[in-house]
Structure formats: C-alpha cells, structure tokens
Amino acid sequence: MSREQSLVQRARKAFQTGKSKPLEYRLHQLRCLHRFITERRRDIADALKKDLCKSDNGTELFETMSLEGEINLAVERLAEWAAPKPVEKNLLTIADEVYIQPEPLGVVLIIGAWNYPWAITLQPLVGAIAAGNAAVIKPSEVSFHSAKVMEELLPLYLDRDLYPVVTGGVSETQELLKQRFDHVFYTGSGSVGRLVMEAASRHLTPVTLELGGKSPCYIDKDCDLRVACRRITWGKFTNCGQTCIAPDYILCEASIQGKVVDGIRQTLLEFYGADPKCSADYGRIINPRHFNRVMNLMEGYTAVLGGQSDASQRYIAPTVLKDVPPHSRMMQEEIFGPVLPIVTVSDMDEAIRFVNEREKPLALYIFCSDKLAVKKMIEETTSGGVTVNDVMMHYTLSSLPFGGVGQSGMGSYHGKHTFDRLSHMRACLVRSLGMESFNLARYPPQDRQRARR
Ligand code: NAD
C-alpha cells in the first residue's frame, strides 16, 4: 500500500468514527488553525520569502489576512450555516417537517497551487473543516519551502488523522488521485484540471476546479486614468504578476494608450523606485521553468516600459508592451508574469466583442465613469467575477462566490460558499403516521378512487 493510500484510508476511518461532525469539534479545529497562523506567522513569511521573494506586507495582505478573515467568519457563523433550513411545503405535507440539512460529504482532497500557497491551500480547508469533512491537503511542490513548513507544522495544530498533509510532485498527486474521495478541490492550470477531473470521474467524485486564464482589463477614455493606472499597476505587478486574477492585458482606445503607459510608468516609480530589482516589495518568478516561459512570451517585442531581466535571480522587470496584435501568442495563453500588453480597440463595443470571442475569463475589469456603459459591458460579457473601477478586490469579499466559468473553472468558494460547496444539502421530509385518510387518493386500486369521487 502506498503512503498516499494509507493516509487517505486513515482519514476515511477517522471520518467514519464521526468525530469531525459535532459543531464543537469543528469550531475547535478552526480555532487551532487560527492559532497555527498566528503563532507560525514568521515561519510562513520566511517560507514565502524563499519561495517567491514575498515581502512581509505582501504575506500579510494576500495570504494570512484573508485566511484569518475566513476562519473568523466560519467560527462566528457556523451554527447558522450548519442548522437545518425549513423550506416551503405543499398541501400534502402541510403538517410535516420539511427542511434542508447540510451534512459533511466525507473525505475531501485539496490540491493547491504555488502562487499563494497558503491562502489557496488553506482557504478550502476552512470550509472543509466547517462542513465537518476530513481533508487530505496537497500543497504544490513548486512552492517548496511553504509546502515543507505546512507538512512539518500544521499537524502540530490539527487532528493528524482527519487532516493529513501530503507533499510531493506529480507522481504523489497522481497516486492520490487514484484514491476515492468525496470531493476534489483543485486550484491550478486548466491542463492539470482536466487530468484531475478525469481521475475523479472514475469514482464519480464531484470536483471544484479553480483555474486561470486571461483576465481582460478595459479602460474607458473618460475615466480618471491616474487612479485607474495606479490600481491596475498594483494588481498586475503584485507577486510579480503571478496572480490568477491579475489583469492579464489592457484594452483601450489608441487615443489614450500613451497616457496609460505614462500613468503606469509614474506608478511603478512610486511603488518600486527607479530600479524594481532593488525594491523589497517586488517579487521574483517562482522557478527557472516559469522564468523561461515568460521570457519566451516576450520574445520579438520591444518593451515600452521595463523589459530587463536577470536569470540568476529569476527577476523580470515590470514590463508594458504597446500595440500588441490581438492574435499574437502573447494574447493566446495566460501570461502569469509581470508583462502587461496593451491591445487597442476602437470603442467599448469592440472591447466587448474582443472579450466574447475568447474563453470566458476568471475576472473582468472595467474602468469607466459612465454607469450605464458599465452596466452594458457587464450585461454583454461573462466572467467568473467582475470588479469595476478596481482590480482583484472582489476576491476580498467572503460574501461573493469566487470561481471561474467555462475554461476558467467550475464551482466557487469563499465564506459560506465554501461551506455549501463542501456539504451535501440533504432533502429531509419528516412525516407522521397519522391522517392517513389524506393519502388514500394516491394508493391503488383506481376503482376505489373513482368510487370515492
Ligand atoms: P502547480 O504547478 O503548482 O500545479 C497545481 C497542483 O497540481 C500542484 O499541487 C501539483 O502538484 C499538481 N500537479 C501538477 N501537475 C500534475 C499532474 N500532471 N498530475 C497531477 N497533479 C499535478 O500550479 P500551476 O498549474 O502552475 O498553477 C498556475 C495556474 O493556476 C494558473 O493558470 C493560475 O491562473 C491558476 N490559479 C488559479 C487560481 C484560482 O483561484 N482560480 C488561483 C491560483 C492559481
């Protein structure tokens, strides 16, 4: 028996004892997870520094704060989320109890990605614990130091049988995927997402796929370009562009392209100084493979801003490209790096067509002061989520379901959405054995019914 198989079996056995079900137990584990984050803040930040050159501020803002927020919300609302929900009755059930009872699914497999290794791997875990499940946690091997800290320290805080951490790469993940789970929650690329779904289908296991894609950012000519550029620059170049909901490219009219470039130039100076390589706030590409991938994408372009790189540090400067052809390779695959192409369009209608001709994105960003035009663009496009006059901020709201649509993913989470996603909503009808006369109409023989009429 492989290590993965025995860990999954142990998690299932532990789940079957029923210990993960009582609300008190779930709350206790959630509080332990919170304690882990508070007490091990330094270990987490150090690991992220080694993996992605993340600043302490970046760790706080993008990893631990959202995680703590999700745990606090779950602790506060768990009783309400887990309570049976009475629903409407019909005439035949008027005297009965009719309700929906959320119940745990069983053993959940969580496969995380490397770009925000803590938030992405542990946020689904918050919902899994809250919903009363066991969960096998598989952090990405690509963010090696974070995975190591997670494997070594998390079991000191959480129940080791119910919530084991499995580290390793492709072969370990594939071994895990051979096992039977009750839900697989995967975050990463679409190509691996397909493999995950295929493996899960063998056991008829439902999946949540949090994938990526090219998230467009439209800038209308009549908006405050200074503010727009500052917000876009923040979202694009945070974590060195390795954010699933970073604006992938800009769509704008040719008449404002120069001003947009100027606005980004000014903001870059403000954020990272004259040489971003020396800034403590600017990250690095995760590994040489991704460094080469982004460098290859840039080949043949002359950067209007940035363009410098240093392979020894996996450094790529914040880079902006002008007048990028709509059908170039840059515009086919997700960039996932600090390169921001600008594609010009004649107006908002062309921008809408541009978005609709491509795969449904994970996020869409619209910078525009005309409320009617904003409504039109939202109505005539689709995406996992949309933020108007800012980027990425919809992610911070636990009340909004976070997830993709079409090629950018299936299923959503955050806050109660994670709890619902990882629960079975059991339909419950509890009748009494009385008032049998009301039921006679549905029983055979037909003749007796005719006679009664
Ligand atoms: P990755 O390489 O870390 O892979 C993700 C997970 O898949 C890892 O745990 C890894 O072990 C596993 N894996 C990799 N290859 C496998 C294989 N052949 N078989 C089985 N398992 C395998 O991460 P990535 O795929 O490079 O992640 C980047 C992508 O993730 C981007 O497209 C990004 O947009 C997307 N992403 C999406 C979200 C979201 O919330 N929607 C968040 C972060 C990243």
Provide a short characterization of the protein structure.
The protein is an alpha/beta fold and about 450 residues long. Helix content is about 40%, strand content about 15%.
List the helices and strands and how they pair.
Layout: H1 3-16, H2 23-39, H3 41-52, H4 56-82, E1 85-86, E2 97-104, E3 107-111, H5 117-130, E4 134-138, H6 144-153, H7 170-178, E5 183-187, H8 190-201, E6 207-210, E7 216-219, H9 225-237, E8 249-253, H10 254-272, H11 288-298, E9 309-310, E10 315-316, E11 319-321, E12 339-345, H12 348-356, E13 363-367, H13 371-380, E14 385-388, E15 402-403, E16 409-410, E17 412-413, H14 416-421, E18 423-430, H15 446-452
Parallel strand pairs: 3-4, 3-5, 5-6, 7-8, 7-13, 8-12, 11-12, 13-14
Antiparallel strand pairs: 1-2, 2-18, 6-16, 9-10, 15-17
Helix pairs in contact: 2-4, 3-4, 3-6, 4-5, 9-10
The structure holds nicotinamide-adenine-dinucleotide (NAD).
Could you characterize the architecture of this molecule?
With 453 residues, this protein is α/β, with parallel strands linked by helices. Helices cover 42% and strands 17% of the residues. The chain contains 15 helices and 18 strands. The protein has helices at residues 3-16, 23-39, 41-52, 56-82, 117-130, 144-153, 170-178, 190-201, 225-237, 254-272, 288-298, 348-356, 371-380, 416-421, 446-452; strands spanning 85-86, 97-104, 107-111, 134-138, 183-187, 207-210, 216-219, 249-253, 309-310, 315-316, 319-321, 339-345, 363-367, 385-388, 402-403, 409-410, 412-413, 423-430. Strands 11-12-8-7-13-14 form a six-stranded parallel sheet, sandwiched between helices. Helix 3 (41-52) runs antiparallel to helix 6 (144-153). It is globular, with a radius of gyration of 25 Å. The model has no long low-confidence stretch (mean pLDDT 96).
